[in-house]
Write a structure and sequence with these properties.
Strand order of the largest sheet: 1-2-3-4-5-6
Number of helices: 13
Shape: globular
Strand content: 15-25%
Distance between the termini: 29 Å
Helix content: 40-55%
Order of helices and strands: HHHHHHHEEEEEEEEHEHEHEEHHEHE
Largest sheet: 6 strands, antiparallel
Radius of gyration: 23 Å
């Protein structure tokens, strides 16, 4: 997103330049992909990484000073989608306090300029509608947690309480606060009634929304066992131990090279499951790479001092070449990790983890 803001600000009031920037930089596609990921987030860890991306995006948008209707239209499109994504992800992670602070980034008075076409209060109607949607979802969740006057969602017609079948019925075990299991009197099946009155079916992928008897959209609910959440395994790793071993080896190798303060972050199709450029699924028809972001201002400064080119206003490098890796003393680590993983491992340096996460969904490698 920082790339978009920098390019758009460079256009000034040239709307042709702004349009070319929007289309040529594929920002529409990037925004839609993040929305698609947020709607299908099936794990708390992945959802949290998307929240970090949205934080970086909304923070960057504050610095976009629009002076034309075209610029404002694009800014509002990205802001509206980010807020809708925020609502979806807050439901999955239940991090409403964090999400609220992110939503506040677009509230008038928090900085930035909306420019031409903005409403009287500095927020366009479409952005205000997205803010209202977020606040409504938060209110529903808050009511489910605290229980407004102890109320629950009203039982729909054709359903009865699960407790009616006996004391052994598991009414709420493993469900989010405010959710309960009920019995469909037509089918005899157990379904889940949410605090907002929506009905879900429990599947291997979590809670799946029921709409008119058909299943539509994945709405994942994190389930806990003794307070512990199941770990998320990115693509390309056979199990949790394999992922942890890779993360440990990466960190150990960085430390031996003199970069113990670097935060290694997995990105790319291993996290999302498909290539951003082609949409091709991970490891389908090819052996996919691992893309590792190395977040450290000191390492970025070191790269610059060695003549390695910087991008995005000096906040990152491009993918490091063999010559770059050799100069930085990382060639042996790259070769070792590639051999261990059975696939090419690519490095790119960022000035911070927040900058890396603002560009793509990310997963910090385990320690």
């Amino acid at each position: 997103m920082s790339d978009f803001v920098g390019d758009m600000n460079a256009c000034g009031s040239n709307e042709t330049c702004q349009k070319n920037t929007w289309e040529g930089g594929k920002y529409e596609q990037i925004s839609k992909e993040i929305t698609d990921w947020s709607e299908k987030a099936v794990s708390g860890a992945f959802a949290k990484s998307l929240l970090t991306s949205i934080q970086g995006g909304l923070t960057a948008l504050k610095d976009l000073n629009c002076t034309t209707a075209t610029c404002t239209q694009y800014k509002d499109t990205l802001t509206e989608r980010a807020l809708n994504d925020l609502t979806n992800l807050a439901k999955v992670t239940d991090q409403w306090e964090n999400a609220t602070s992110l939503a506040a980034l677009v509230i008038p008075g928090s900085g930035g300029s909306r420019g031409a076409g903005a409403g009287e209060g500095g927020v366009s109607p479409r952005v205000q509608a997205a803010l209202d949607k977020f606040q409504e979802a938060k209110a529903v969740r808050h009511g489910a947690s605290t229980g407004k006057n102890g109320e629950q969602a009203t039982l729909p017609a054709g359903y009865r309480e699960g407790s009616s079948v006996g004391a052994a019925f598991n009414t709420t075990g493993g469900l989010p606060d405010g959710y309960r299991r009920v019995i469909n009197t037509k089918t005899g099946n157990t379904e889940v009634l949410a605090a907002d009155g929506k009905l879900y079916l429990e599947t291997g992928n979590g809670l799946t929304l029921k709409a008119g008897g058909n299943l539509s959209g994945l709405v994942e609910a994190e389930k806990s066992i003794a307070g512990a959440k199941a770990p998320v395994i990115p693509k390309g790793f056979s199990n949790t131990d394999d992922f942890v071993r890779f993360g440990t080896d990466t960190r150990d190798g960085l430390a031996r090279a003199g970069y113990g303060n670097v935060e290694p972050i997995l990105q790319g199709s291993a996290v999302t499951g498909k290539s951003f450029k082609t949409g091709q699924e991970f490891d389908i028809g090819r052996v996919s790479d691992f893309d590792i972001a190395l977040a450290s201002p000191e390492l970025l400064q070191r790269a610059q001092s060695l003549g390695i080119g910087l991008r995005s206003g000096g906040t990152r490098t491009g993918p490091l070449s063999a010559r770059d890796l050799q100069a930085l003393g990382l060639k042996d680590l790259s070769s070792k990790l590639s051999g261990q993983a059975g696939r090419e491992v690519n490095f790119m340096i960022y000035d911070s983890a927040a900058t890396a996460a603002s560009r793509a969904p990310s997963m910090v490698l385990p320690k």
